[in-house]
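Please review this one.

:::
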Amino acid sequence: MTTGLGAWLRVQRTRKGLTQAALAAKVGRPQTWVSQVERGEVRLDADEAAALAYFVEGSVLDALDQGGYLAEPLWVRSIEAKLDTMHKALHSA
């Protein structure tokens, strides 16, 4: 059983009604990469975790917590700033 960020991502993705292929297309990665993330075979950087959380409309902080990133506060501030920038860009169009 996969735990942590991969399990969290699978739950969020399926709640959103996205296939692995659809999520992969949104983040610009192959479907196999999403599968590996969900199985815990890929260690994401904080930017990747935040992007995945954004596209499944999950909490970035939950994703970072599940991925073990909250022990690194600088990552949290960086991700919050990037998410804010993405949010503003989407809503200014």
About this structure: The helical segments are 5-16, 20-27, 31-38, 46-55, 60-66, 73-91. The CA atoms of residues 47 and 57 lie 15 Å apart. The two ends are 41 Å apart (CA to CA).
